[in-house]
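Suppose a colleague, Dr. K., hands you the sequence of a protein chain of 310 amino acids and asks what its three-dimensional shape might be. Before reaching for any lab equipment, you can write down a predicted structure in token form. Begin with the sequence itself:
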Amino acid sequence: MLSRVANTLYWMRRYVERADQIARVVDVNLDLAFDRAPGDVARLWGRLLPALLPAPAWAQVEHARTGGALTDLANVDAVASCVAAARENARQVRQHISGEMWERVNGLHLALNDPARRAAWEERPHGYFQTVREGAALFDAAVHAGMARDEGWYFVQLGLFLERAAGTARLLACQLRESQPAVDADMALDEQLDWICLLRACDALELYRRRYCAELRADRIVRFLIEDPLSPRTVRYALDEIARALATLAETVPSQPPLTLASAVTSTVDASRSGASDPRAAVSAIEAECGRIHRTLYETYIDHRRQTVT
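The predicted structure, expressed as tokens, is then:
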């Protein structure tokens, strides 16, 4: 596979996942901020929005500001920009993806930039984020149904799970800056809502409840999001998928040195299960490892002469 194609498939999937994450975080904070005091609302936005990565500058979508509820929200246009970036990458590799994949990402791009729909979403912004979530889910289904499990598939998987692992780690880092996950099950209502917000922002609330029922404990939530190996929204699951994709690429392209996850990071994630590791240190190590894998992936398979930024 050409390195240009691998790079384009990788970023196509990263940007769809990024758009989905931004939509989830903003949508969840809208719900949580509904009955909060203005000071609490500012704290919530100030805590989680810095965890979101933007779209590239070349894909930024500019819309006239009307003062409505939708366009006043920070990073809302970043969702449309991420979808625009994913669409542009998909356009460049039309012959390597299925027709349904193209239709899904193109259709979502057109929907988010439809003036009539945006006018309606001014009054009901949740509809905007629901459209993004549904579009991302349909695109993911098209990927699973329409792509051969060749080299391109594994670059798509790396784009998805590197973005997901790094995004979850950043959200955890923002949460842990303000609170230490204690083992005490008794939390104030506002604190419970904050941790529920984190689970919803990671799309993991139902997965957590299936594991621990209705009991909310901050330390369990942190451990769950880091180390649960069976839930597809956790860091551990994403790292396992990254390791599997890297191992397969190493077999497929034996001329290049194999890439592996750092043993220190996997040990740190494993230690989180028993509470033996500091969660802040674990999250920091995960973020650093995702960045290292991203850079090394480029140096090995894409372009060893070029430094990349996200």
